[in-house]
TrEMBL record:
Lineage top rank: taxon: Eukaryota
Protein known as: CCHC-type domain-containing protein
A molecular function (GO) term: nucleic acid binding
Regions that span the bilayer: none
Domain CCHC-type: 87-102
Keyword DNA repair: no
Renumbered residue ranges of the record's region Disordered: 65-108
Biased composition (Basic residues): 65-74
PROSITE patterns documented for this protein: ZF_CCHC (PS50158)
InterPro entries attached to this UniProt entry: Znf_CCHC, Znf_CCHC_sf
Length: 143
C-alpha cells in the first residue's frame, strides 16, 4: 500500500523513481561489467615462466593457533547461572550419562529428586508408578 502511494506521489511531481535507486543495481551497470572481453589464460603447460620463478620453493604458511582466553579463566557475567552436571545413570555429579563409566544405580530411582506431584500418575487411580494401561485397578473400574 505504501509503495502505491509513494509511486503516485512521484508521478504527480513528474519525478523518475530510478533516481532513488543506486547505479549499482541498474541494468546498464550490469551490461558495462560484462562488456569487457575476458581473455582465457590457456593450458598451464603452454605458459612461459621464467627460470628463477620455477626454481623457487614455496612452502605452506606457518600457522599458529589463534590466541584467546581459555574457558576456565573467563569472567562469568552476573546474569549467568552456575550449573553442575549430574549423571542420570549413576547419580554422581561432574559428568553426564554418555560419558559415565560407573555402574548404574539399582533401585535408587532417578538421580534428580523429582517431587511426587511432578511424576507421571495413573489417570484412573491417581497413584504413581504406572499408567492407565498398566493399572491394577482397571478391571474393577470397568465393572
Amino acid at each position: 500500500m505504501k509503495l502505491i502511494i509513494f509511486n503516485i506521489f512521484y508521478r504527480e511531481r513528474h519525478l523518475d523513481l530510478t533516481t532513488l535507486c543506486s547505479d549499482y543495481y541498474k541494468r546498464q551497470t550490469l551490461i558495462d561489467a560484462y562488456s569487457i572481453p575476458i581473455m582465457s589464460v590457456g593450458d598451464p603447460s603452454t605458459w612461459v615462466v621464467p627460470s628463477d620463478i620455477t626454481q623457487r620453493v614455496i612452502l605452506n604458511p606457518i600457522s599458529r593457533r589463534q590466541a584467546r582466553r581459555s574457558r576456565a579463566g573467563r569472567h562469568v557475567s552476573s546474569s549467568e547461572r552456575k550449573t553442575t552436571q549430574s549423571c542420570r545413570r549413576c547419580g554422581q555429579s561432574g559428568h553426564n550419562s554418555r560419558r559415565c563409566s560407573n555402574p548404574p544405580m539399582i533401585n535408587k530411582g532417578p538421580s534428580r529428586g523429582v517431587p511426587d506431584e511432578y511424576c507421571c500418575k495413573c489417570s484412573i487411580c491417581h497413584s504413581i508408578g504406572h499408567n492407565k494401561q498398566t493399572c491394577p485397578n482397571i478391571d474393577s473400574n470397568r465393572e
